[in-house]
Design a protein that fits this description.
mainly beta, 53% strand, Immunoglobulin-like, 4-stranded antiparallel β-sheet, Neuraminidase
Length: 652
């Protein structure tokens, strides 16, 4: 995910978040090639004042005096919190943070927290005509005395989240959670100026000459008449950052790409980005073709993934493709926001399915003439090539959200892995049972599969086999550290493969009595899912899609043994989203102090999970969200000089 862009001299910076954690990259050749920065945090906001570069994010403020070669944490007199915005007007530096607004008038030598009249969190800042403007979660504030006091200027914009701001004399613009607002009197009154653009989050605003640009979840929009009307400049996925470098405009997209326009938005071309390989959520096969559902659309390959082509019909979708299923000429895709699309002519034309449009489709499967979908709210059924879908679980409790993430059909049996456990029907979906006896707390099942005649379930703490007589799940784990956060199970004949969120690929040929580890040849730290096609196994990982012949895998195994991690790693929690508990895993390569804390999105500390010396090894802990409201939270690990940050979602 590209979260931000900044230009310092001839160097282009970008902050990312993905399978390899949160990082800052830099390019000195306009994005042709990238290097990872030595900045120990994800630098979401980077600015230069004099000869000093300041980089801020959720982990605080860092500085560099050698053009970004080395960085050090800046805590000398700095009194801010998690940083959301930095603007510079030499020698003045203004920082919007979870603590409010912090100002330095001497290039960072001294700092003053200027919060008189401000709320506790500032999301955006702008300067214009000796006035400082601050955007918050409840509107806009202004200061005419360099931050000593602040006035509320919210008439017409009350209660809006102000994510971005821009000044284009004589106008002041605010990008909010509901579109763009404009003021012609220094913020005293505001008017809604969103004609031609969806009323959604405006993450970034940019003034280039006489043109105003806005980035939102539908792409880039531009206005040549000060916001009175908007036209599409680039229709694509979520745009989080727009910056101006000379006459060139750079755009950073949430799902991993960076675009450049050299003609003020008339045309855009993509450039290399440090995260140009989008996260893959699902794979499906049809003959020699591989279809990949990704966060940035549907791709297909006819040469085992050596080259990929985007299904261009989905450029209008602006949606994550969460799952895909293929049979003959029929392709079915499930999205995260807009339900199910299907094509009966190899993707030449597409139709949207009925009765399932508003669902988040997590998994799809085709069995004979029937199609099945697992969603946040349950399980749906349709005949192949039909646009009509019927909910088959739960039928009555429509306020129930099982979050179905795995689905297999072995008629008349249907098995589903979900947040509430294993959901099983033995009569083609007419009746259902939720089987949780024997499963750990939380009972969430991430993956479910049949191998021979046995049913297996993957959970955050290991793998379980179902005793059909007792209707009881029995653990079949080997070495405990390799069996945490199992994300995917697949079977091939009598062989069961298991992939974990910590990067392990495991194999058993005797129902879990003995296990072998298979990832000695794979340079990965996270394994998201496994798929088998013909005699090949495919692994979706943080290092792309890997594949191997199954015979080659089975003859190149090593026994499970405890190993010392090679580096610090903070893994993505599982399950995610979660309710009420989730598991967080991390690795420590050498003895030392480990600090792990949880924050809300405004930077307020919620809980300390770890604060002690730890020997080298792999660890897991359970975070219980009871007592917290639904929403996005942040967990951060500080180890030695390393800082790692990840987000997780509590859904109640």
């Amino acid at each position: 995910m590209i979260l931000s862009l900044a230009q310092i001299g001839q160097t282009l910076y970008t902050s990312t978040n993905g399978g390899d954690g949160s990082n800052t990259y830099f390019s000195t050749n306009g994005g042709v090639s990238w290097n990872i920065s030595t900045l120990p945090i994800r630098g979401d906001y980077i600015a230069e004042c004099g000869s000093i570069i300041y980089a801020g994010g959720l982990e605080g403020l860092y500085t560099s005096s050698d053009n970004g070669v080395s960085w050090k944490i800046f805590d000398y007199n700095y009194v801010g919190g998690a940083i959301y915005s930095i603007i510079v007007n030499y020698p003045n530096i203004y920082i919007g943070s979870s603590s409010g607004v912090t100002i330095s008038n001497d290039n960072g030598l001294t700092w003053t927290l200027c919060n008189n009249g401000l709320p506790w969190s500032i999301l955006s800042l702008a300067l214009g005509n000796n006035v400082i403007y601050a955007g918050a979660y409840n509107g806009v504030y202004s200061s005419t005395d360099n931050g000593k006091s602040w006035n509320t200027i919210n008439s017409g914009i009350e209660g809006k989240f102000v994510w971005s701001m821009a000044v284009k004399d004589p106008y002041l613009f605010a990008g909010t959670d509901q579109g763009v607002y404009r003021s012609s009197n220094n913020g005293q009154t505001w008017e809604f100026m969103n004609s031609g653009m969806p009323a959604t989050y405006i993450f970034t605003l940019l003034v280039s000459g006489t043109t105003l640009f806005a980035g939102n979840d539908n792409g880039i929009f531009q206005s040549a008449n000060n916001g009175s009307s908007w036209t599409v400049s680039l229709s694509s996925s979520s745009v989080r950052s727009l910056i101006l470098s000379g006459s060139d405009i750079y755009a950073g997209f949430f799902y991993g790409s960076i675009y450049i326009s050299k003609n003020n938005g008339a045309g855009w071309t993509t450039i290399n980005s440090p995260r140009s390989s989008f996260k893959t959520n699902s794979l499906a096969f049809s003959g020699a073709n591989i279809f990949a559902a990704t966060d940035n659309g549907l791709f297909y390959s006819s040469d085992k993934g050596a080259n990929w082509t985007m299904e261009s019909s989905f450029l209008f979708s602006n949606d994550q493709i969460a799952s895909v299923a293929v049979r003959d000429s029929t392709i079915i895709i499930g999205t995260s926001l807009n339900g199910v699309y299907f094509s009966t002519d190899y993707g030449l034309t597409w139709l949207i399915a009925n009765s399932i449009q508003d669902e988040h489709i997590k998994t799809l499967t085709i069995d004979g003439p029937n199609s099945y979908a697992g969603t946040d709210s349950g399980i749906f059924f349709s005949t192949v090539n039909s646009s009509n879908w019927i909910r088959i679980y739960p039928v009555n409790a429509l306020n129930m959200f099982p979050y179905v993430s795995s689905l297999i059909v072995d008629r008349p049996n249907i098995y589903a892995g979900s947040l509430i456990g294993a959901i099983i029907s033995k009569d083609n979906g007419q009746t259902w049972n939720v089987v949780t006896s024997g499963l750990p707390d939380p009972v969430s099942v991430s993956s479910i599969v049949k191998c021979n005649s046995d049913l297996f379930a993957a959970t955050a703490t290991g793998i379980y086999i179902l005793d059909n007589i007792k209707n009881l799940w029995i653990p079949i784990n080997g070495t405990a550290q390799n069996f945490s956060n199992i994300t995917s199970l697949v079977s091939y004949g009598s062989t069961l493969f298991a992939g974990s969120n910590s990067g392990d690929l495991l194999l058993t040929s005797n129902s879990g009595n003995n296990w072998s580890i298979l990832n000695s040849r794979m340079t990965i730290t996270q394994l998201y899912s496994l798929v088998i096609n013909d005699s090949f196994i495919y692994a979706v990982t943080d290092n792309g899609i890997l594949y191997s012949s199954i015979s080659g895998m089975e003859t190149n195994v090593e026994s499970l043994k405890k190993t010392v991690p090679a580096s610090y790693i903070l893994f993505q929690n599982y399950p995610n989203p979660f309710n009420p508990a989730t598991t967080i895993s991390y690795q420590v390569p050498k003895p030392g102090k480990i600090l792990i804390k949880v924050y809300d999105m405004l930077g307020r500390e919620i809980r300390t999970l770890v604060n002690e010396e730890k020997p080298a090894g792999s660890y897991s802990l359970k975070f219980d969200g009871r007592g917290l409201t639904s929403g996005i939270y942040i967990y951060r690990m500080i180890a030695s000089d390393n800082v790692f940050t990840r987000k997780f979602v509590l859904l109640k």
